[in-house]
Amino acid sequence: MNMLESSVGRKLVMSVTGLSMIAFVLVHLLGNTTLFYGPDGINAYAEALHRFGALVWAFRLLLLTVLLLHVFYGIQLTLENRAAKPRAYAIKSSRATTLAGRSMVWSGLLIGGFIFFHLLHFTLQLINPELAAGRHFDSLGRPDVFMMVVLSFRKMPVSLLYLGALAALGLHLMHSLQGAVQTLGLNNERTLPKVMKAGVLAAILIFLGYAAFPITVFTGLLR
């Protein structure tokens, strides 16, 4: 039987794709910390990435494929679970009744919408084109990504939008990390509470890491 014909197989795909995207989120966060080193940090980082040209776009297409697989099987499993769930479901696990667990579909949809906005904003630079890095250059002739990011986050609606999306990401990660570990069989009854706490802690740290960018810019700590 095809692995994807079983719910276990589809959950495995969900776990692998989810963990892959979490790895990207962490690497992306690490790269973004160059913002705190000023124009010489993030502008040099962006220039180094663009030297890879086609490889960067190939990676983006691969990441898009991973994302689409995650979304497709996530929706499919959610619909199957709802169809199979009895009307009188007396006993609910603590994991299933958490806010993060109940909001997985909605937080996932919000994240998907935000990714689309983020690509238009900072990758394709179609939102606020007057701030686009491709139109402004630093003293070394590099696209001024630093200026684009700082002037964007000085706008309250933009900063609030990013913080709201990051809150959705944090909720989604809390449940995703716990679910992935369970699906891969890396936990047991003794370690489950630790896994749940680790998932919450990791989600909070990722949220705080990304939230530091709009907060430090909007409050004037980073100029």
Give a topology summary.
Elements: H1 7-32, H2 39-50, H3 54-84, H4 99-102, H5 104-123, H6 145-153, H7 156-183, H8 192-218
Helix pairs in contact: 1-3, 1-7, 1-8, 5-7, 7-8
What report would you give on this structure?
The structure is a single chain. The chain has 223 residues and is mostly helical. The chain has a single domain (3-218), classed as 3 helical TM bundles of succinate and fumarate reductases. 70% of the residues lie in helices and 0% in strands. It has eight helices and no strands. Helix 1 crosses helix 7 and helix 5 crosses helix 7. The longest helix is centred in the first third of the chain and has 31 residues, at 54-84. The chain is elongated and about 60 Å long.
Give me a quick take on this structure.
The chain is mainly α and 223 residues long. The chain is built from eight helices and no strands.
